[in-house]
């Protein structure tokens, strides 16, 4: 199988890259703990390396100085996110988080999200002990979550808190968006 690789401009060399499967790239290698695998790869290949997610090349940066160089000193060169087919498929191209574009649509969505967070960060009811709507919802959900954990700990056996934490985070978002929490 012949692989397709983008051409590197003359005089430059591409970052080191571990061996990967055709069409799949390094997805199988990353497994359930990609942060651990990427850390091991950076120890072997250095602070700058390339992997492929499917056929899409992805630059991986490790190390504080390298990341600072990329994000602070060369921010315009590294802004945006990879245009991965899976992100587009899952979000139907309408996600602010996984949108590779940093153009006017992305800027409008970002402004909308910032304004929403700002409005929920303003003072709520003066009689409330919370300083803002967001804090009020987080406090209520934290009390509910602690009560649920106490109930589960008093019962027999063990329990996995992960599911309850995920539901609590979703309930904070639902309370802000819809004005109520869900069980």
UniProtKB/TrEMBL annotation:
Its main location: endoplasmic reticulum. It is a peripheral membrane protein. It is an enzyme of class 1 (oxidoreductase). Keywords: Endoplasmic reticulum, Heme, Iron, Metal-binding, Microsome, Monooxygenase, Oxidoreductase. Coiled coil: none annotated. GO terms for molecular function: heme binding; iron ion binding; oxidoreductase activity, acting on paired donors, with incorporation or reduction of molecular oxygen, reduced flavin or flavoprotein as one donor, and incorporation of one atom of oxygen. Its cofactor is heme. It comes from the Eukaryota. GO terms for cellular component: endoplasmic reticulum membrane. Its EC number is 1.14.14.1. Pfam families: p450. It is found in: Endoplasmic reticulum membrane; Microsome membrane. InterPro entries: Cyt_P450, Cyt_P450_E_grp-I, Cyt_P450_sf. Belongs to the cytochrome P450 family. This is unspecific monooxygenase.
